[in-house]
Amino acid sequence: MRDAAPDMPLRRRLRQGRDRLATALITAGGIGVIAAVMAIGVFLAVEVLPLFWGGGPGGPEVDLETLWLPQSYPGLEAPAHRWQPTLPDSDPGPRFGMAPLAWGTLEAAAWSLLIAVPLALGAAAHSALFMSRRLRTRLKPTLELMEALPGVVIGFVAGLVLAPWLERQLALAATLVLLLPPGLLLAGGLRGALPGGLRRRLPLGWAALWLLPWVGLVAVLAAWLAPSLEAAWFGGDLRGWIETTLGLDYAGRNAVIVGMAMGFAVMPSIYALAEDALSGVPASLAEGAQALGATRWQTLWRVVLPAASPGVLSAVMIGAGRAVGETMIVLMASGNTALMTANPLDGLRSLAASIAIELPEAAPGGLHYRLLLLAALLLFVFTFLVNTLAEVVRSRLRRRYRRLGGAP
Amino acid sequence: MSRWWRGRGRLPRGEGPWAWLAAGSVALSVLLLVLLLGLLAVRGLGHFWPADVDRVTLSDGRVLAGRAVKEAPLPGDAGRERLYRTDNRDLDGALWDWVPVDAIERVDHPDDLVVLERRRWGAFVGRLVAWLPEEGERLEGEAAWSALRARLARLERQREAIDRLREQTLLPLVRRLEHDAAGSTAALEAVRARLRALRAEMAGDRLLLESVDGRRLIQPVEAVLRAARPNAMGVGGKLVAWAEGVWRFLSEGPRAANTAGGVWPAIFGTILLVMLMSLLVTPFGVLAAVYLNEVAHQGRLTRLVRIGVRNLAGVPSIVYGVFGLGVFVYGLGGRLDAWFFEDALPSPTFGTGGLLWASLTLALLTLPVVIVATEEGLARIPDRQREGALALGATRLEMLTRVVLPMATPAMLTGVILAVARAAGEVAPLMLVGVAKLAPQVPVDGDFPFLHLERKFMHLGYHIFDAAFHGGDVQAAMPLIYATALLLVLVILVLNLTAIFLRHHLRSRHGTLSQH
Amino acid sequence: MMAAMRRGWLIGLMLLLVAPGAAPALADHGVGTLDTVGSDTMAGLMLRWGERLGREHPGLRVQLQASGSASAPPALTAGTTLVGPMSRPMTEAERAAFVARYGYPPRDIVVARDALVVVAHRHNPLSALSRAELDAIFSESRRCGAPRGIRRWQALALARPSGRIALHGRNAVSGTHGLFRREALCGGSFRPEVNEHPGSAAVVAAVADDPRALGYAGLNHLTPGVKALALRDAEGRLRRPEPAAVRRGAYPLARDLHLYVNRPPDGDLPAAERAFLSLVLSAEGQAIVEELGFVSLPAEALAAQRRRLGLPSAGD
To answer: Does C195 sit within 8 Å of A336, measured CB to CB?
Structure first.
């Protein structure tokens, strides 16, 4: 008003022009960045397509059949899956059966989920419903920090420390796995039998802490029992017993070790998401159930878990996505044997590990190179789909909570 | 039915067996985490502790000196055997010795055992018999030890002088030559002559050494890096030696084919890579987030794009590595080389993996993290703040830069730190786009243009993988791998804790904000 | 020169701080980078030579990417490196690809000798294997003439250990893998059960941890945790992997370690490569070879190669 000078419209026009320019730049930049990120899928697809269209780029042809079905190779009695891409062209010729790689990837993921899911869901249930609030604010970030442990460190410990140890102490490990669940139940039972004063000192809400020494005690007990159990049941040689009686061969680096290491790696992400889902269930539901006389565990099992099940499911799916793509752990702990066996004590080789060790040596544009890119595309598509599914499920869950929470 | 109810009513304390298994799984997870970190800490930090050296006398009269590493059972219940690290590879041909525990007659710790770290053949363990200087008289016993200590201190200074001469005189000279090819070659020769003279000064003195089983050896002092008598050290002396060891690990480059020495280039490479990555990812991530949240029409397409971006965070890192190799290295890099560096071909400049491509790949990998975190921050800002700004006559740009972005800064920061924490631990994609086993020259130096984006670099995570699988002797490299792993985990923990702290801070700030 | 101008443009345009490659004049003063891509077996050697070179020529740098010999020829051909260490000779196909691109073959310099050893756990009673047995154990094609495959220790007529033989080896890109396949398996194919480790050290470590394991690795990776098996030749004589036998050529699984260099046959070596090769082919370079557990070359072979490369004769 004071300086209603003629330059006012000019300044305003300048401001608006600048604004429009900035908006355009943001739009262009934003779309550009998003397009760049999305370009990954497009790049992989474009590089892989020549494999199936217009014949392979030189060298032996591949098609879906040679990639995924058993082939008969010279020198072998029966048709088999073989991933031996670097055999020389002339004799005996490279072999590109990708089925063992895909199988190994899924096997490793399955074992890691088998180990991670019970641990993660148990931990999530405990910390969402039973744990004291004070402990939870400390413990939850700690467990989430586990997620940040680099795969290369976990892989190193699994491959060079855990695998040789397990090879020597198979009986101890088996005893430990057998003893832990009853040991924990015993802890619960003993606590129940304690006099009231002492029992109040050991509340369920802090069980995560005071069970630590107990678990250590169980481990010591297992170490003490293991040799005699091995002698009594397995003639003093569990590994030999597995090989002769069960007919399973034991490889030093096997699917179970990969599963343990990767289970440890994916457990925190499943835990964090499942815990969020469980503790996000509107309190009114749980309170209602408990008011009707249900114990907290019944509340969890009958009320909270069904309500949160989509969230828990999506947590497991995201864990599966991580397990499928994890590279370093499988590379370092698996032995990289491209086998198709159901024996969990045999080695395996995953798509991701194959890419990591073979791609730098594959000639760009060649058949081997494109097949590894196909492996990358498979990983991409698989994880993208799994994550999208998980995301859809989760957004449905959020809507459900809003509805439940909004009800009077 | 009724009994069931009564039963429950009488036992309000019982949560059933499952509750205990659930509690146990938390305890087990915590225990595993503590075990893992404890293992890394104990083994990693223990490596630098100058433990006592055992002199082991066996029942067959053989004597050896070394440190016990581990034990294993002998086949057929024949007792146990123990692995000693005996060093003296130039005498024995091996670093290790397996000894049946039953055959050990006596273990003692004589004070005069010396451990020499040498430039070649690894360490020496044994006795120092005599000091054989180039000129002057031969010394024995304590006098030889003090002469050696004094000479090593002087050697250290001479090595530093050589390094200084190299860094401060020789390399600048070489750089000046870049602009004036005919110029100061005479000066260059002078520096080289001085370097040669310094080297000659270091040579000459020798040691007469004897292993515990009596074999003798003449050792030039020049190749000795450090000497210690761990059995004669008190706890205080060992603590000092331990701290020095840790410091050398952090500040020196690797030696002896990555099985000894420090990890400084790897630390530097990791940090530089992560810094470059955050420089790249922050503006682009924020730009995309602002576009998605503030500019784009909030329709079905935007929602789909948002879900897509979110899901890219779950795509395996190796896939990003493949993309980086195919598009950046082979595609862009090859193109750049053909256009701008054709006089250097066939030697590639950008057509091979390097710092630039690695940081771009990691930036792409972490872009979704930054976008999601920033978007969350933007969505948390109440619309009335934006409306207020607009109502006061601000344009959208002014609203964004003056109101929205400052309020979203902590969220962006959290996103970037989370991205950094994720990137610092990634190794698989780097194996495809430019990590090197050994690149002793860090990618930043005094050479124009100071930051060499085309160079390969070392990385802590890859160093672990490399030493564990490619090195000469895994057993010898183990302690160093533990130490490197511990360092990497610490770096990542610190970054994550910062992110958690920031997130906490942000939540409490916005918690109060929305109550107004 | 066009390139140099364009480079100026690039710097101006992108404001990306990009280093120009070392100019030729500087290379004569021992300044430059030596990029090497290739064998993992030779990584230790390359590192030690690199360290040594850095002390002699402060301005020279050696960069190393060591994932396996098979990575050297593509990198040489694509031009991503000038020096490719390989633990096996180039195959015809690899050489042909190189010649097709450059019109001349890469220079082949033998820098050391090495041998593949079959290793077993230190307490394994086994002491020697024939080639047919080796093939029957490691391959599924059995081209060396074994009547049936050997999967279990019992088939070797040993009381101990029992159970399946755990097999360890290198991954397919390594020269060690290729050489063992060609020489010990008569060109056949490995069993898929052979563990593929990313490095020889990992093979030896795995065998040292498992009494039921057999593996193959480079001679220089031997540790007291494992024992090297002798090979029984057709007449039943034992061939032990000892340095003298390897140097003589009496041990069957011996091999040369090569450096391939991308330079036209008449062209001079650039200064960086020249300094490096002259170190490698000197007494000092060969001492490093011995120190790392490989077998050094006889003096005549060194002198002949130095002459061929136009390097001053040894003794400087």
So the answer is: yes
Judged by DSSP in three states, C167 sits in strand
Structural domain containing residue A12? 4-51
Residue A346 falls inside a structural domain? yes
> CA-CA distance, B81 to B99, in Å (whole number)?
5
The verdict on residue A13 lying in a domain is yes
Based on the domain organization, do A142 and A274 belong to the same domain?
Answer: yes
Angstrom distance (rounded) from CA B320 to CA B422: 13
C135: nearest Cα among C231, C246, C245, C256:
C231
Query: Which residues in chain B are closer than 8 Å to C80, comparing Cβ atoms?
Result: 348, 351-352
Structural domains in chain B, CATH included, are 54-158+202-233 (no CATH), 264-515 (1.10.3720.10)
Residues B69 and B100: beta-carbon distance below 8 Å? no
Q: How many CB pairs under 8 A join A and C?
A: 107
ipTM passes above 0.90: no
**Co-location of A128 and A11 in the same domain:** no
What DSSP character marks residue B57? E
Residue B343 CA, distance from chain mean position:
36
Q: Are residues A27 and A166 in the same domain?
A: no
| Cβ pair B118, C291 in contact under 8 A | no
pTM for the predicted model, two decimal places: 0.86
- Evaluate whether residue A236 is within a structural domain: yes
Minimal CA separation from B503 to chain A, in Å: 12
* 3-state DSSP assignment of residue C305: helix
State how many domains chain A has: 2
Same domain as A351, residue A272: yes
- Smallest Cβ–Cβ distance between B318 and the set A127, A325, A384 belongs to A325
**Residue A360 and residue A223 share a domain:** yes
Same domain, A230 and A298: yes
Cα B492 from Cα C8, distance rounded (Å): 39
Residue at a domain's end among A34, A51, A68? A51
3-state secondary structure of B259: coil
Q: Does A89 map to a domain?
A: no
A114 touches chain B (CB under 8 A): no
Q: Domain with A258 in it: what CATH number?
A: 1.10.3720.10
Enclosing H/E stretch for C66: strand C60-66
Tens of each residue's pLDDT in chain C, 316 residues: 444 444 444 444 433 333 333 333 344 555 567 778 888 778 878 888 887 887 777 667 777 776 677 778 888 887 778 888 988 888 888 889 889 888 888 888 899 988 889 999 988 888 888 888 888 899 888 888 888 888 888 888 777 787 888 899 988 877 788 888 888 888 888 888 888 888 888 899 889 888 889 999 888 888 888 989 998 888 888 888 888 888 888 888 888 889 898 888 777 777 778 888 888 898 888 988 888 888 888 888 888 888 888 777 654 4
Of the candidates A31, A51, A71, which is a domain's last residue?
A: A51
How far B352 CA lies from chain A's nearest CA (Å)? Answer: 11
